[in-house]
Amino acid sequence: MKRQARWFTPLLILVLIMSGCSYTEQSASGEMPEMIRVKLMMPDQAKVNEEVTLQIKLTQGEKPVDDADQVQFQIWDEQNEPAAPSIEEGMMNADELEARGAVKASSVGDGIYEVKYTFQEPGVYVVQAHVTSGAMHTMPRTKVTVE
Fold this sequence. Notes:
single chain; alpha+beta; 6-stranded mixed sheet; 5-stranded antiparallel sheet; 2 helices; 11 strands
């Protein structure tokens, strides 16, 4: 039995060292993906009953992203902000956002996603983009004054 332990123990130690080294090498060479960036591209002002184009430009690093998992625009009058989901409910998925009135955007190429939208009443509106690409999610917002 001692003869087997004599060659088995060094072999086990060698295997552990080798697997530890390869794990370290993989971790050291792996880079975090660059964060997604969303540039809101929409007018500051709009007219009642006139169609406007609401756009975002989605990039990761310097490259445009045309295959985002989800891009939606949520629009509300700033006097009537929708309630945020509770902690128990967690983050809303795309279907839940659409059920609350969010509009799904379409890719038009070069990282640009857009929707056509018509404001029905005057006021100041908040336009919030919900963008998911891979494991990253961002929700930038801006205001549009409608006269």
